[in-house]
Amino acid sequence: MHQLNFDIAFLRSYVAGIELGSFARAADKVGRSTSAVSAQLKKLEEQAGLPLFRKDGRGLALTPAGEVLLGYARRLLELNDEAAVALRGVELDGWIKLGLQEDFGEALLPDVLGRFARAHPKVRIEAHVARNTELMDRLTMGQLDLALLWGGACIADVAAYPPQLRRRIAEPAMRWIASSSLAWRPEPGEALPLIMFDRECLFQRCATQALDRAGIAWRIAFTSPSLAGLWAAAAAGLGVTVRTGLGLPPSVRVLDHAEAGLPALPPLTLELLHASNVPGPPVERLAALIVESLQQDAA
User: What is the pTM of this model?
Assistant: First the structure.
């Protein structure tokens, strides 16, 4: 039986077209003409031996076979690119001190840092998970090379950081978060039960200010020193908490604030801050991987 071998270039155009919502935009991304990308997709269908697209109004949608191929295509491209980086950067070595928010610890640490470690086994990473204020302090004291921080106009220390050392990754909105399995409804006449950290943070400050402006009474129903504690309390239906929609576990969900009778919350920025404007090659490579991963999640 003839072994089927998918063409990586065809898969790259295929994934880019689906993620960007347009094969014309995909052509720009992969550096080919639109007609060349169309020819690649036709050949990809021939390789697969099954239709990958179906008509959906004026556009195209994926067939079941197309959905299956999309998942595998992403994995194949990730391995291909990881191998290419590993060959180019096999001699990279040194230390990287990274600070990141607890929101991204579960996803970023095993995924991005795992990929980086496999590609650059000589580079040692020292990761520190903490809240914005502590990470900012460590960065300014030279204890971190990179820090993933919440930013925005309401966060003065990040806004004041030198712009040439900041990279904005996304602009996620704050969201009201509740249990994904238990129906949650505010009780008439009762103060809104809030689930918060055991000391004030920017999410708590923004949430309570928004509730006060809307004339909605609130109370602290549960506090925890860790994000995992907030998720557990929200999943148990003890109240609502506030984060962004990034990095949520399946046990909780984003509430439609209008349906829940809650005020809208302000947007944040997610920013990657460098300690130096001349970072070494290992720091540059890790920063690029973090930006790529989080922009995909935000999209």
Answer: 0.63
